[in-house]
Amino acid sequence: PIHNQIISPLGTDLSLMNYNEVLDSDFRKKYEAENKLIIVNAGKQYEGKYILFIVEIAQQLQLRGVDLLLVLVGSAPDEYDKKITEKLGSLSSESWLRFPLMARSELKEIYCAADLGIWPGVPSNTIQEAMGCGVAMALPNDESTNHLIDGNGLHISIDDLLRSSEKLLDIAKNPSLLLDMQKKSIVIARNYSWDSISKDLIKIYEQ
User: Fold this and answer.
1) What's the rounded Cα separation, in Å, for the pair 160 and 196?
2) To 10 degrees, the CA torsion angle through 62, 58, 24, 115?
3) Which of 51, 140, 143, 198 is the most exposed place for a label (fewest CB within 10 A)?
4) Nearest to residue 108, comparing CAs of 187, 188, 43, 24?
5) CB-based contacts of 135: which residues, under 8 Å, 6+ apart?
6) Is the torsion defined by CA of 152, 174, 39, 182 positive or negative?
7) What is the side-by-side order of every strand in the sheet holding 96-99?
8) Which one, of 170, 167, 95, lies nearest residue 138 by Cα?
9) Are 8 and 86 in contact (CB under 8 A)?
10) For 65-193, where are the E strands, in sequence order?
11) Which residues lie across from 40 on neighbouring strands?
């Protein structure tokens, strides 16, 4: 019988997913977002990902004067896709971009430019990939993602849009704090590289 189970965390390839200043600058220039707060979410899009909540947060920030660019990467079922499109109508047309699922090399370009990642629902390893490229994080306060927040971001709740928006507004208005969070994301992501995870599992196996 199996008495102990070890659940391996999601990991990423940090030899690919790492910050690149040129990619950062090129993406911002391409989309005229040099001075904007770039917010990203990437992965499969369905109800459990709470993409609509992300758009609502962007709307709240925009109403409070934040010059932002929301970048959503992923594909959704037709019905949910329609809901996302309708919700994006609450934002000014120059403040959002949507892309289909793309190769990691293309995702890296977006991550390197992004300041803040918002993943309010079911997690995926796109979180760790974004962290590896220096993206500060806004994640739910639960056991599936708590290990990914340690000075590199904050917790948000789908049950409290206004409070979550206020927290993110504080970050948006404090560039030095945001930069510090971005740097810490890179450090934390090293714990979730495939290399680091494999070494930890080998140690457990050898016990």
Assistant:
1) 35
2) 100
3) 143
4) 24
5) 40, 111, 114, 115, 116, 117, 182, 185
6) negative
7) 96-99, 68-73, 37-42, 116-118, 136-140, 153-156
8) 167
9) no
10) 68-73, 96-99, 116-118, 136-140, 153-156
11) 71, 117
Cβ-contact 59, 89 below 8 angstroms: no
Tell how far CA 162 is from the center of its chain.
19
- Residue 19 pLDDT more than 50? yes
β-pairing verdict for 37-42 and 116-118: parallel
Looking at residue 192, its pLDDT comes to: 79
Contact 12, 132 (CB under 8 A): yes
Q: Which two tokens stand for residue 185?
A: 């994301």
The first and second tokens of residue 153, run together, are 């971001």
CB 20 within 8 A of CB 112: yes
The predicted-structure confidence for 93-114, as pLDDT tens digits, reads as follows 999 999 999 999 999 999 999 9
Token digits of residue 203: 């140690």
